[in-house]
Here is the input.
Amino acid sequence: MNLEDQKVLFNIFHDGTLFEIIEDDGDYLITIEIQYLAERVKVVFDLFHIQLRKPNGIFFKDSESDRVVDDVSKIKEMELEILHTELKEERISIFCGNEENNNYGFLMIEAEDIQIFDQEHKDLELNELKKMTQDYWNEFKQD
Here is the structure.
């Protein structure tokens, strides 16, 4: 998945919460809780899994203090909500925050590839996710 598609993926997960980040054999497995989109796959679902393949880094930089957190277990504890994604210096830059803790900043991710999975770990293509998102927003506008 190229960088532009990675950016699109994280923008699709806007309003989702980083629920879990696990390092696994050099890759990172990230669980994103975003019920309104996950239930489009199966009504009882509330999350997606993504795998960062061949990652070159993942860290959180606080927007006020510039403090950097690169321990994924500490990033996971922040329960960050994805707000906006852009590309910066050949990386994915995800503006996110936790309103309860008043903690906002940028989650920086660099990976050669990203794979998307549903809650049962079945492969999903980015185009499938784009269509689900578009369908959701079209229905939302009609209500």
The longest strand covers residues 47-62. The chain is about 25% helix and 45% strand. The helical segments are 3-12, 35-38, 72-77, 126-142.
